[in-house]
Design a protein that fits this description.
Layout: E1 7-8, E2 11-12, H1 18-41, H2 53-65, H3 73-104, H4 106-119, H5 124-135, H6 139-163, H7 167-175, H8 180-214, H9 223-232, H10 236-264
Antiparallel strand pairs: 1-2
Helix pairs in contact: 2-10, 3-4, 3-6, 3-8, 3-9, 5-6, 6-8, 7-8, 8-9, 8-10, 9-10
Amino acid sequence: MPRARPVRAGRVYGAPGEGYSGHISLITALILIGLWFLVTEAGWVKPLFLPSPVAVYNKFVVAWTDGVANSTLWEHTWASLKRVFGAFLLACVTAIPIGIMMGVSRIARGLFDPIIEFYRPLPPLAYLPLVIIWLGIGEFPKIFLIYLAIFAPMAIAARAGVKSVSIEQIHAAYAMGGTRGQIIRHVIVKAALPEIFTGMRIGIGVGWTTLVAAEMIAADRGLGFMVLNSAQFLDSAAVVMGIIVIGLFAFAFDLVVRYMERVMIPWKGKV
């Protein structure tokens, strides 16, 4: 009878590693780009619906040098980065502490949980009119709309991380003379970090998806604004270029958060 492979931290020894998986991802991306070239060069799809990679690259060069929708690509990108990361940082300093409070306090959970669970499933476009009525059409309403979208998943992830802490760890800390504040800081928050980082990754992804809705509020530049403006003029190449730029920035930030997670939580996934 064959011996079972040893398992540690969810990984089976002898299974393909992360490097192997990365090679598969790279090959998959190259195959998709090749299919994109094939479909567009063969004329199977009209350029209005799917521009060729060459057309998208040419549009990228034009957007970087001459500009699209009255601004260069860098100006659009910088405007969007300020909005998304401003909202993300604001969510980090509010959603994570509130989520931790919800996990350790029944009063905080009773106060915040109904509000978060009520608005969390709502699409940002549903409360966009209220944001405009309350805050106007300046820069802050755009950031606030993205902030609302990011806040809920980050707070819920922090709460879930706190609830996942082993009660034995808490009792052991109390037995060693730890105070409530020390236990929250050094035991509960530390054990909740994996869930908190997962919430950060989900939150920033939601933030990028909300960007287009946020830049509908009287924006004159931004990647979402550029995509919407180009779509009105049926400029498919600019639309695809904007989508690719947004996707690349979102993916790059996700890699940064993964790296921070490995550095700050080296024990994750280990016995």
